[in-house]
């Protein structure tokens, strides 16, 4: 019988316990080794974890593939991972489902004026606004990747007008698509509710800035569910305070948790959630790792491989 394929895991004990159960049950041809229980892993090619340690390449001289248990890779110390090592990010059905739920919640809350209603009713103000049909509202999604496409599809099903912006051209039923910087202003000009589902890269950092807000129609609303680094927070505050942006829902902030004096906290037209739109579940992560090892071992294309050049 061939020796089981070793996979090194760095995780918190509660998640590691789930990984071990899944591997025992579903991958008898593989064996999990715990990063914290041993010092050297020579001969082992696979590593899984949220944050690869700085001495990864030293302790794993034969490393070939890193599985990052997260959808974004902006937290990864790419310089510490040798260039020949493949990096795969976490994308699983539940990660996508939770994000779709959150985007639907956020868009519906903004569409139905829930942010001002929460504050007004607490203060005893009874101020119903006209109800607009979904078909009269345009939702613009920045980022038509795995998560952006799933959210767009769900919004189309609710009857919204949906447009999406990405780097390369896309064709999606019911979605008006725009590609590249040259189309950004046209995409924004008719967007009533802007959803940011971009990865954080050198090109997208601080993309949600004053210029972008002023290109949206007056009264537009913003939902940032990408990364805190996409948003220039003082620019949003200014646009909220002068009424150009009507409301914002933010799942991510530049500093998490934010300092107690962060002006977005408690702002009457901002609703904040603590980076909880979606998260990877250990069972799904373990299953994805098993699939990755099988794909890598058989020479098949590997799903959700990170393009280091593009940064996502
Ligand atoms: P993907 O890599 O599948 O998709 C990224 C999309 O962004 C692609 O459509 C890509 O264009 C587009 N894009 C990237 N750079 C640019 C650019 N410079 N200009 C225009 N479009 C660009 O990512 P996912 O959909 O899986 O995830 C998106 C992000 O969501 C993650 O990177 C993460 O930051 C965030 N996230 C947040 C979570 C939360 O809880 N708040 C949870 C999970 C993820 P193209 O298709 O042409 O390549």
From TrEMBL:
One of its GO terms (molecular function) is NAD binding. Residues 107-277 form the D-isomer specific 2-hydroxyacid dehydrogenase NAD-binding domain. Keywords: NAD, Oxidoreductase. InterPro entries: D-isomer_DH_NAD-bd, NAD(P)-bd_dom_sf. It holds the Pfam family 2-Hacid_dh_C. PANTHER family: 2-HACID_DH_C DOMAIN-CONTAINING PROTEIN, D-ISOMER SPECIFIC 2-HYDROXYACID DEHYDROGENASE NAD-BINDING DOMAIN-CONTAINING PROTEIN. This is Glyoxylate/hydroxypyruvate reductase A. It comes from Rhizobium quercicola.
């Amino acid at each position: 019988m061939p020796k089981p394929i070793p996979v090194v895991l760095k995780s918190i004990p509660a998640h590691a316990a789930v990984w071990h159960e899944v591997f025992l049950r579903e991958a008898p041809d593989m064996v999990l080794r715990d990063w914290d229980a041993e010092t050297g892993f020579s001969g082992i090619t696979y590593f899984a974890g949220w944050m690869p340690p700085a001495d990864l390449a030293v302790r794993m001289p034969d490393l070939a593939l890193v599985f990052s248990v997260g959808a974004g890779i902006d937290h990864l110390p790419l310089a510490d991972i040798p260039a020949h090592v493949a990096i795969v990010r976490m994308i699983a059905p539940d990660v996508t489902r939770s994000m779709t739920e959150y985007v639907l919640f956020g868009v519906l809350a903004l569409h139905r004026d829930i942010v001002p209603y929460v504050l007004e009713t607490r203060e005893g103000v009874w101020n119903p606004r006209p109800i607009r049909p979904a078909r009269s509202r345009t939702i613009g999604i920045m980022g038509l990747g795995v998560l952006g496409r799933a959210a767009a599809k769900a919004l189309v099903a609710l009857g919204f007008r949906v447009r999406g912006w990405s780097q390369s051209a896309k064709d999606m039923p019911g979605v008006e698509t725009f590609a590249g910087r040259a189309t950004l202003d046209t995409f924004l000009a008719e967007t009533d509710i802007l959803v940011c589902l971009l990865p954080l890269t050198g090109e997208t950092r601080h993309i949600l800035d004053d210029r972008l807000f002023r290109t949206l129609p007056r009264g537009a609303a913003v939902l940032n569910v990408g990364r805190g680094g996409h948003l220039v927070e003082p620019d949003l505050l200014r646009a909220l305070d002068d009424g150009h942006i009507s409301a914002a829902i933010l799942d991510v902030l530049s500093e998490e948790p934010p300092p107690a004096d962060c002006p977005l906290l408690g702002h009457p037209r901002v609703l904040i959630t603590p980076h909880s739109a979606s998260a990877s579940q250990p069972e799904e992560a373990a299953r994805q790792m098993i699939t990755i090892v099988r794909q890598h071992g058989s020479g098949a294309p590997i799903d959700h491989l990170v393009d280091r050049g593009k940064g996502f």
